[in-house]
Design a protein that fits this description.
heterodimer; A: alpha/beta; Rossmann fold; 2 domains; 6-stranded parallel β-sheet; 11 helices; 14 strands; 45% helix; B: ABC transporter involved in vitamin B12 uptake, BtuC; two-stranded antiparallel sheet; two-stranded antiparallel ribbon; 14 helices; Peripla_BP_I (chain A); carbohydrate binding (chain A); signal (chain A); RhaS (chain A)
Amino acid sequence: MKLLKTLALGSALALAMLASHAQAETIKIGLVAKSLGNGFFEAANKGAQEAAKELGGVEVIYTGPTSTTAEGQIEVINALIAQNVNAIAISANDPDAVVPALKKAMARGIKVISWDSAVAKDGRIVHLNPSSNELIGKMCLQLAAAHLPDGKGDFAILSATTTSTNQNTWIAEMKKQLPNFPGLNLVTTVYGDDLADKSYREAQGLLTSQPNVKVIVAPTTVGVLAASQAVSDAKKIGTVYVTGLGLPSEMAGAIKSGATKEFAIWNPIDLGYSATQIAYHLVKGDTDGKPGSDISAGRMGKIKIGDNGEAAMADPFVYDAKNIDQFSKIF
Amino acid sequence: MIKQLFKFREMLLVVIIAVLLGVFSSRSPGFASPSNLSNIFNDTSILIILALGQMTVILTKSIDLSVAANVAFTGMAVAMLNAAHPGLPLALIVLIALGIGAILGAINGLFVWKLGIPSIVVTLGTLTIYRGMAFVLSGGGWVNAHQMTEPFLQTPRQLFLGLPVLGWTAIVIVAIIYIVMSRTFLGRAIYASGGNPTAAVYAGIDVGRTRFFAFVLSGTLAGLCGYLWVSRYAVAYVDIAAGFELDSVAACVIGGISTLGGIGSVAGAVLGSLFLGVIKNALPVINISPFSQMAISGGVIIAAVIFNARQERRRGRIILRDRGASETIEGIA
């Protein structure tokens, strides 16, 4: 009996040692989505698995609540803490509600970063933005230039509401960087209020009142769709192009009709990839993730951590006829 | 006498619209060209159809604020149906749209008729409910152009005698509503139960039932608009036609339909819609700052209401009032 007990204890100890040994070898990273079953996050997971394979010795646990609630994410975080993960990378449903749970995780030495949708500063080391306002503004100008012969000519912006913060920031960035694109001329900015009918009418108005405008840039998905429809209804496909920011699943029709040659949005695969890379390097101790530091992120190059521990991944990803079918299935 | 006044009013609207077209075309050449006018009419078609439905409801002293939410729900439902079963013939889809719209309208009508809740409260409630239902149905997702079938998207765009089918649909609906309002029992009952409910009861008209049918009619037309909207803009999402219920009310008010009920004409609703349509289509092309666009639209509507209020003062007064009958009405209203 005593022997049996010793044996049991011994094997349990051995097992525990084995387990801790294994843990020291594989780095476990919890990738928390806003909700499961969303194509965007499934794609991010794809990128995360790619990074894990590339780095080696990394296990990515992809998880999340079934609906986009902060409560669900808190449960998921607690479960990850119980699983002794080394890092948590989360796209938060609420920037503040998940902070206490994440603080608990950090108190146990778990490295926490947020990506896509930020967590308040106290609850994470680094936040990875898919892009930055500066890069988005630059991308919009690049897209406009790409649709014009030699990158020279007139374009107009179709925005959402006159008070929309991110739209106005992006438009301001575009205006600021316009001198870097000689020959590119911003004629006017119109506002479609993110309503399909008003955006459509504004685009139609541009077609009639601004015959020189050859490209309409709409950094909003309702606007870019409505403008594409207006251009194809006006039978101006091939003379006037629409581009901007939109989701591949929404823009697939516009690409097929030819109203849009290419448009941009952040790539969720790259985002998941970079988040995993950053989490890995934080766990390894290669970097502390303090503002001003650089973190190398494999094929995405070096990612610079800016103020408030926020980082911008890269230029928005460009989608065109070649890759639209692949991505329109994802998100 | 009153009839002549209305003739005058509608003529006045025609003149105002003509003047507007003149002013706009002086600032933007080609604005009054036939092709652009047909564009404007086509663009306004959905508003015309919705405004006619709204008109029948307003004529009975009620209001239907849920029309835009009805458009959103029905549009989402038929778009998802089309995406899931591309084989369904378009005629069936349009019938389903009409049916869903009619059911949503009937829900409003039943609350107003059987429970006697004021229509503004009922439809304010169903406005959020129908939009919420559209969200539940779609899970917040979008139905995009490439998921819809060619006939679904292209039929309203087919040109027939220079005007797209969408525009012709509006013309057919205008004709039908004109006949219903002027030649059928329901049409006359709608005027009577809004104009003088007491007298309507004496004439053997069930005011509540008439309101119910006005709501069903409005809902049915909104259902049709649900399909037309989704097809025109080639996208269905929860927020489509947001705020459009107010446009339909504004079109009625500008068209001289009294918000107190009983007064108004099909021509008025059509002209009121066209008036809004001309302004909406003109603002983007005449280089007016977007910041002042809304102020201009609002100013025009208020001017129309003031004009309306002045007209309503000329109405005849009820000389005799029977307490018994008016109490029945109070119970219903």
